[in-house]
Amino acid sequence: MLQFAKLGKVLKMFLKILLLLAVSTQIFAFVLQKTYYIPSTYVKLRDIVPNAPYDLTLYEVDPLRFTKKVRAQELMQTLEKHGFTELSSKSRYIKFITKSPIETSKIINALKDAFKEKYPSIQFTSVEVVPRGYLNTIPQEYEVELPRTFYRTNEGTLSIETLKKRKLFFDYLIDANIDVYHAKHEIQKGEKLSTLNTIKKQIKFDTFKARPISKEQINLTQSKRKLPVDSVIYIRDTEALTLVKRDSMVNVNFTDSGLSISFSARALQNGKLHDIITIEKRDKTKLRVRVIGKNRVEMQN
Fold first, then answer.
1. What is the mean pLDDT of residues 4-27?
2. Whose CA is closest to 43, among 99, 113, 107, 112?
3. Counting Cβ atoms within 10 Å, is residue 301 exposed (0-12), middle (13-18) or buried (19+)?
4. What are the structural domains, with CATH classification, of the chain?
5. In CA terms, which of 77, 264, 292, 298 is 20 to 30 Å from 17?
6. Alpha-carbon distance 280 to 286, whole Å?
7. How far, in Å, CA of 96 to CA of 48, rounded?
């Protein structure tokens, strides 16, 4: 009986060890980054695995180039020797770059302003900007230049141009949340967008194939094509709302020298805001007018 009791204790201890190993494996399972920016010329274990229970030096960065390039497979094998398994990488090589001692707040603020202009609802958690090579200093005066479609993704490359026309390149990574609008149900072509057929959802900003519509565009646009339920609505899926429909009656305004005249007429064309369309008066006279609102047009002086 005593032997069975001892065996039972051993089994319980063995099961506890297995459980701890399983938890440890789950904690340290991760995907390697393509690039790591490190604070010194030595690559430390905690530079890669911040919550590692101990630290040690894995590599030394070239002190002249401030970079170190390692095969992803080699790095994973090194980490596995120290008990870190379940690793994966999307890149064949992993690059380590020593952080530059420069001030990047001006670049970060310019980047934030550019994204806020495109996405008024964006909420930043963090913004990281690092030079593509090691820099001791950067000029005080420069202009920040962004790629034409920078707003489609949360990471990319920008440049600054100095007064001497010298360009320096930086990589950036944005962690932020953004409001997007989804189709609440299937939306038909030409259907007006409103709170009745759209729903707002906050998501992690990652990569968009196009620019999503904003709150300001709801009630001012209509669907350009049929949109499936729960699909993200992009600007390219919409067009300006048709404010005047062919054969509808419109109110015509005409102002000249302080004199204001209004009358009704029949629209001979569809019209969106600021479109020039043709209308027909009751006496069959045809006029060219500008669309200024829902079934409202004005004559040109």
1. 49
2. 99
3. exposed
4. 2-98 (no CATH), 105-176 (no CATH), 178-240 (3.90.1210.10), 242-299 (2.30.30.760)
5. 77
6. 4
7. 10
Considering only CA atoms, which of 62, 12, 18 is closest in space to residue 41?
A: 62
163: left (phi over 0), alpha (psi -120 to 50) or beta: alpha
What does the alpha-carbon distance between residue 297 and residue 277 come to, in Å, rounded to a whole number? 9
Q: Confidence band (pLDDT; 50, 70, 90) for 20?
A: very low
CA end-to-end distance (rounded Å), the chain: 109
Write phi, then psi, for 66 (nearest 5 degrees).
60, 25
DSSP structure string for 31-74: EEPSEEEESSSEEEHHHH-TT-SS--EEEE--TTT-EEEEEHHH
φ, ψ dihedrals at 74, nearest 5°: -65, -45
Whether residue 143 contacts residue 199, with contact meaning beta carbons closer than 8 Å, is answered with no
What is the rounded CA–CA span in Å between residue 149 and residue 211? 9
From the number of C-beta atoms within 10 Å of its C-beta (0-12, 13-18, 19+), residue 192 rates as: middle
Q: Give me the pLDDT at residue 67, please.
A: 86
Instruction: Give the per-residue pLDDT at 90.
Output: 86
Yes or no: say if 83 and 27 are a contact pair by the CB < 8 Å rule.
Answer: no
- What one-character-per-residue DSSP string does 89-133 give? ESSSEEEEEEPP----HHHHHHHHHHHHHH-TT-EEEEEEEEESS
Taking a C-beta distance cutoff of 8 angstroms, is the pair 177, 124 a contact?
no
pLDDT of residue 25: 44
* Strands 35-38, 93-98: pairing kind: parallel
User: Quick count: other Cβ atoms within 10 Å of Cβ 261?
Assistant: 10
Whether 16 shows a pLDDT value over 60: the answer reads: no
- Most distant CA pair in the chain: distance in Å? 114
pLDDT at 129: 92
The share of the chain scoring above pLDDT 90, in percent, equals: 54
DSSP state of 151: G
CA distance 165 to 184: 50
